[in-house]
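Colleagues,

Please find the record for the two-part complex below.
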Amino acid sequence: MARKKRRLLLIGAAGITLAIAMSLVLFALRDSIVFFYGPTEMAEKAPPLGTRLRIGGLVEQGSLIHEGSSTVTFAVTDLKQHIKVIYTGLLPDLFREGQGVVAEGTVEGPNLFHADTVLAKHDERYMPKDVADRLKRQGIWRDGEKSAQTQ
Amino acid sequence: MIVETGHYALALALAVTLLQSVLPIWGTRRGDLGLASMAVPAAITQFALVAYAFAALTYAHVVSDFSLVTVVENSHTTKPLVYKIAGVWGNHEGSMLLWVLILAIFGAAVASFGRGMADELRANTLAVQGWIAFAFLLFILLTSDPFARRFPAPFEGQDLNPLLQDPGLAIHPPLLYLGYVGFSIVFSFAAAALISGRVDAAWARYIRPWALIAWSFLTLGIAMGSYWAYYTLGWGGFWFWDPVENASLMPWLAGTALLHSAAVMEKRDALKIWTIFLAILTFSLSLLGTFLVRSGVLTSVHSFASDPSRGLFILAILILFIGGSLVLYAWRAPALRPGGLFAPVSREGALVINNLMLTICCGIVLTGTLYPLVLETLTGDKISVGAPFFNLTFAPLVLSILLLMPIGQSLAWKRGDFLGAAQRVMVAAVAGVALSLVLAAALRGGPVLAPIGVGLAVYLILGSSSELVSRIWGRGQAWRATLARATGLPRSAWGTAIAHAGLGVTLLGLAATGWGVERIAAVKPGQTVDLGPYQATIVKLEQRQGPNYSEIGVRAIIRQGGSTVTTIEPAKRTFPVRQTTITEAGIATIGFGQVYISVGDQHPDGSIDARMFWKPLVTTIWIGAIVMAIGGIVSLSDRRLRIGFARRAIHSRLSGDPVAPQPAE
């Protein structure tokens, strides 16, 4: 009797905590996850202004402009579409034109993105996996480079 | 020649693990103790062989034997000796060999120090350890041979990734693996208990020292990794909720739960089935972590040595071991005798709540880590789950754990008195709240969470010792008696208090980030930037040439008021051979805080982008982790937890010996 009652109590407590945690997780998954788009996808889906996104692609050759006081603009491209990105802050060490990049921030216009984080992995052969997948799907990725990715 | 013998030793080790996997189980099934005891020499031989292979690989790295692929790809004759040695595990093949070496160390340790254990349990435990070693040795030999040759051998190697040429590489992976892989032995204990169908309080006592060792190393490993990322990546962040970090946090959370539930099992003979489950879960999460890190299925800032083509093999190992152990669990666990009952308001009741919450925390981290992967597979949508998700889900649960922790610790075993326990932590609670209020009032307009966090940290630090104080201190008691009581307390009680206080110290550092100052600006020599209580003046900006790199360096003087505190020299280095640029952050530790400057690109007008921080109390984040690990080690020194002691203790208790030690806290 006592065993049963206590087990019930325990299961009840576990159930309640789990329910709270689950609802928090579901709520957070709806509100605080960030979708990842490539330039073409962003053009197609036209997310509303202010949407938080991650975008990825290649930094377009010759697009990097220093606007002074740590603000830069550059274009992210998948060689079909491109998005202009404004970013204030330090670019990562491996940020280079023609290389892969991932930027997180908000949509400012149909082709304008305001980044607050710019990521490039710390490896000279780096191409973010997300970007590589997308470029592969579009047939731009050369598979010969993949073996070089292996360390 | 040495290289060949190393390779041969690995193959031999594989054969030995095959014997170690089969013979002991067969022996215990048939009641043939001689056969079962083969496990001990097998485990020790396996260790010797793997250690030899590891030494051979290290030798090849030290003498720069460029006929080995791994040496060519990761070494260079001019590389300093320490990085030649650390470079052994700075790549996929070598790090897997380190993994197996540590697996073998734990197996051999149980074989040599487990004399007090029941023969059957020891034999079966070592057999299960043998299965794991077999799977991973096979993985190494088939897919990631560290001794693969290259012909013709080049004259020079490609050097190690400059980012890895850091003392962190020498310390972090071994520590992390000692923790991660250390939990394998606990897993083996659990599987052995399920195989033999017997589990009792003594079992919990056997696993506790091993779980404590693994947990302490894992704590240090995670902290070291976090500090390394903090000073090398140049972003000033110490935790990114990155999949690779989560991969190490999950076994830590499960392992922490395991330590606590094992305490209940040992003391009250309850929660047996649950403890076994946690032991399986913890190592399963370590395996999952190895898979996530090694396979490269997740994008991460920390993954250096990943290779998707090997991922499938690890995935197979993962499914085999996790699936197999869970099947074994489902089949055998119902046959175990259920443990004792206990009152909800008691130490064990509190520990159940602790377990519940830690496991749920672990589940949240797991969800956040794997959800993007699952979603991508199902819908093709790519998402990232980062800090906002964890702040909303993980943080509230952890906060409630922290609030309850000192109260739980003050509850008595069997039947606790909630009011009494609350009273005992009252001093700590009042001190915490008062400090929060004072800080909030003094720094009006500042961040809200920071004073609350600091108050909570103080509550934790004081609260974790309140139980000790109440046990040591008596009104009107002579100091000599107090001292006697203090030294008479079990070490594990001290360990608990220290580890819990360590968590408070870490929280102190986390809370103080709210008062941090961050400035991003293009700076020129002569310019001064305010960083909280300090001012950083850029005095020099120059191009320098290093041995194998060129760098742009900045010299900054840190002043407080008129007086100079210190000088720091952040730089940005470019290594032409590997076309790699790395940031050397300039960090000045002032008290417990740090001034942190990292530099970026130089502009045509001569100014340079710089990211500058004042981070008050930031070092306490890692100091707290060290304190936690010290708590673990103090607990380990408890004579009742000493490896091999358990059996004698039980014997003496059975014989009614009055000096028989009490079960540990």
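The first strand of chain A starts at residue 33 and ends at 37.

Comments are welcome before we finalize the supplementary table.
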